[in-house]
């Protein structure tokens, strides 16, 4: 390993920490978000790294490990037993969102399959994204073998579409949906605040910028458990037969989707262990691995891939806003109130971290915890749905 490759790996490991510190001190940088900044700075640094002969192939292989480790960390804090607290309209509405994205993503595949070569993978990634969130997109893309260029362009497109939709959610949509859907009926439950505050603190990531070194060391145990999950998944796949006579790492390449599904399952299983689920820091640790992966995507990005960006953006916008429109129609048919529809749509499209600002726009604290629980459920099921449906669509590609 040459010096430039060593420097590249130091950048991958430590640049996210620097970016998080900058984001915590600058409103402008916070608006752009740490994921986008990791992409951007990774892209800027890719030019000198490539010129100095850094091993980009090694970085690409490393990125696959990063996503596999990140997924269990994110799922460790998933309080799935708490889903029994969800009121029936909330559960029904989140199910509607999930069904909507599946229907629209499948339709988009058949519309775009002649113009976008990997339309099946894109549909699968977006099903995971709009059921759970960005971690699902990255996990599914990695599991399906999509290129870093494709994943980065899709994530950039999602930032554009997501930015538009989030602005609508906190501005005109509450008034508009009030005219279309029934009013919200207050439940009057006050026992949700403690759990809601715990989740908000976890998903906001605010603690990350206080004592970074101490925090990193305290989360080392979680990281080691997650690595063990990855090792188990790889071990299982090494025992399976190879269709091409491959062995070792080449053999694992045939089973990337299965590896991702196994680590997802192990992450969910360990979330039922109370000491794992309630200990702070696993989610933020998983997000740090996602940021490292984002740096790698920027470093490995091929600028020539931009030529297909507009078509990709068109497919993404059709899936995102088609999902929202179909969700509204279904909510109208089944008389789901507009608060419930909007918060479950937020949980699906954005994940738990965006629940609080939308709840504030609706002036309703009661829906915070149920919305966060829906987002956690989306993290848990997103990989299964995305990879499964993408594999099914590949039969028609």
Would you write up a description of this structure?
- With 397 residues, this protein is mainly α.
- The protein has one domain.
- Helix content is 75%, strand content 0%.
- Helix 8 crosses helix 17.
- The model has no long low-confidence stretch (mean pLDDT 87).
Brief overview:
The protein has 397 residues and is mostly helical. The chain has helices spanning 3-25, 27-32, 34-51, 56-76, 88-112, 119-129, 134-144, 148-169, 173-180, 193-204, 212-218, 220-238, 248-252, 256-271, 274-278, 282-300, 309-333, 338-349, 355-362, 368-393.
Task: Give the key terms.
397 residues; mainly alpha; 20 helices; 75% helix; 0% strand
- Write down the oligomeric state: single chain
Distance between the termini: 40 Å
Judged by helices, strands and strand pairing, the structural class is mainly alpha
Helix tally? 20
Write down how many β-strands occur, each being a DSSP E stretch of 2 or more residues: 0
Question: Topology, pairings included?
Answer:
Elements: H1 3-25, H2 27-32, H3 34-51, H4 56-76, H5 88-112, H6 119-129, H7 134-144, H8 148-169, H9 173-180, H10 193-204, H11 212-218, H12 220-238, H13 248-252, H14 256-271, H15 274-278, H16 282-300, H17 309-333, H18 338-349, H19 355-362, H20 368-393
Helix pairs in contact: 1-3, 1-16, 3-16, 4-7, 4-12, 4-14, 4-16, 5-6, 5-17, 5-18, 5-20, 6-7, 6-20, 7-14, 7-20, 8-16, 8-17, 12-14, 14-20, 17-18, 18-19, 18-20
């Amino acid at each position: 390993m040459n010096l430039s490759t060593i420097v590249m790996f130091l950048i991958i490991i430590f640049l996210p920490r620097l970016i998080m510190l900058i984001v915590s001190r600058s409103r402008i940088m916070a608006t752009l978000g740490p994921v986008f900044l990791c992409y951007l700075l990774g892209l800027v640094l890719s030019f000198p790294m490539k010129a100095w002969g850094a091993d980009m192939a090694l970085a690409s292989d490393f990125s696959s490990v990063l996503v596999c480790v990140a997924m269990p960390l994110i799922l460790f804090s998933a309080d799935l037993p708490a889903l029994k607290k969800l009121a029936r309209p909330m559960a029904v509405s989140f199910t509607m969102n999930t069904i909507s994205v599946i229907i629209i993503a499948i339709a988009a595949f058949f519309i775009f399959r002649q113009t976008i070569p990997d339309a099946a993978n894109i549909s699968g990634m977006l099903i995971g994204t709009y059921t759970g969130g960005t971690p699902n997109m990255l996990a599914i893309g990695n599991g399906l073998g999509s290129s870093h260029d494709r994943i980065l362009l899709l994530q950039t497109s999602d930032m554009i579409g997501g930015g538009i939709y989030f602005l609508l959610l906190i501005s005109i949509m509450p008034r508009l949906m009030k005219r279309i859907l029934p009013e919200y009926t207050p439940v009057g439950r006050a026992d949700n605040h403690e759990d809601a505050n715990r989740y908000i603190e976890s998903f906001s990531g605010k603690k990350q910028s206080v004592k970074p070194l101490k925090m990193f060391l305290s989360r080392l145990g979680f990281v080691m458990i997650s690595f063990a999950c990855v090792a188990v998944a790889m071990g299982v796949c090494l025992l399976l037969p190879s269709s091409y006579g491959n062995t070792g790492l080449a053999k694992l390449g045939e089973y990337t989707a299965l590896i991702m599904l196994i680590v997802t399952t192990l992450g969910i299983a360990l979330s039922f262990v109370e000491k794992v689920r309630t200990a702070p820091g696993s989610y933020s640790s998983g997000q740090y691995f996602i940021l490292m992966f984002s740096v790698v995507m920027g470093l490995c990005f091929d600028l020539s891939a931009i030529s297909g960006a507009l078509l990709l953006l068109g497919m993404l916008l059709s899936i995102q806003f088609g999902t929202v429109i179909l969700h509204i129609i279904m909510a109208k048919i089944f008389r789901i109130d507009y608060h419930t529809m909007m918060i479950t749509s937020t949980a699906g499209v954005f994940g738990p971290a965006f629940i609080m600002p939308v709840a504030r726009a609706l002036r309703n604290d009661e829906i915070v915890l149920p919305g966060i629980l829906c987002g956690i459920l989306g993290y848990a099921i997103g990989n299964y749905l995305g990879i499964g449906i993408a594999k099914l669509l590949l039969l028609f590609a």
